Amino acid sequence: MKEIKNIIALLVVAATISCNQNNKPKEPVKPTIDSTVVFLLQSGSLDKTVSLPGELLAQEKVQVFGKVSGYIKKIYVDIGSQVKQGQVIAILEAPELQSRIAESKQKLESAKARLITSNDLYKRLLEASKTDGVIAPADLEKAKNQVSSDEALIRAAQSGVNAEGETAGYLTLKSPFSGTVIKRNVDAGAYVGKPGETPLFEIEDNATLRLHIAIPEALTGTKVKEGKVQFTLKAIPGKKFEGNLSRKSGSLDPNSRSEVWEFAVNNSDHLLKSGMFADCKLNILREGKSFFVPYSAVVTTLEKKFVIRSENNISKWVDVSQGVGLPDKTEIFGNLKEGDTLVLKANEELKADTKLVIKISK
């Protein structure tokens, strides 16, 4: 019985102590201030290899049509034929054209005969007019004018002969440059020269090919290291080819926002074909220094892009534009200088003119 009373007494004492502890005032919790991780802006040189698609095109390409109407008399080439500049590739015949040429020559001969007659008459009248009263002045003037008229007729007839001769020259089709015949759409005996017809031949000069690469707008302000490009082709795996920068279009395509850069590719062995698509690698450089920051430091909104700079531990939004992107950082341009303190992980929630507790990133 005595042990039970002792236990009860201990419980009462414990309860009293617990109540006293609960009634003690709690100490206020001090608020914690989060630090903002920042880094120091440093400049660097842009030196990056980019991969872009390209297309091989012929140095020159032409479609050969029949200038005059006629029939194919003879064909001297076929697809794959190598031709030289000025080489005859086909001959046409046009009987009606030959008739016009013969007619124009006859008109010229007739005009020459009339000139001989009128000139002879004028000379005889001129000689007779030396005797007073024998030849009327009007008759002499008329004979002289007839000579001038016949001379004009000869010049006109000669022009007609020359024109028909030039037209006859179109009956012989020649290659305008050295190259390869890639299409032949006609056979001997076919009638050609109709409006809207298919070209008779297509010829390409592919000894040197043009490699066209569409350069994105962000890269148009850069230059290619040593002006060279390396590329590979699915059709020829395991082999690398090279080209030299020859020209730039100087204008952006409004649809793709890109500028075409053209590279000259030697193809003297005719291994490459025009129309092939290439996987191109360009080592691009930018003159002068650029600023590169982690992607997390750039905030992109619907209105603008900006970074957050710490000025005397006060946040400031600085508008920027992005340039070339690297695997872990991006090039930026704006009102910045080397050594600026920028927030590493910026966001819209960090408003401008906010007091910062900064922590330099290691």
UniProtKB/TrEMBL annotation:
Alphabetical list of InterPro entries matching this protein: Beta-barrel_RND_2, BSH_CzcB-like, RND_pump_MFP
Domain of life of the organism encoding this protein: Bacteria
Ranges where the CzcB-like barrel-sandwich hybrid domain occurs: 62-194
Domain CusB-like beta-barrel: 211-283
The family this protein is said to belong to: Belongs to the membrane fusion protein (MFP) (TC 8.A.1) family.
This protein's name: Efflux RND transporter periplasmic adaptor subunit
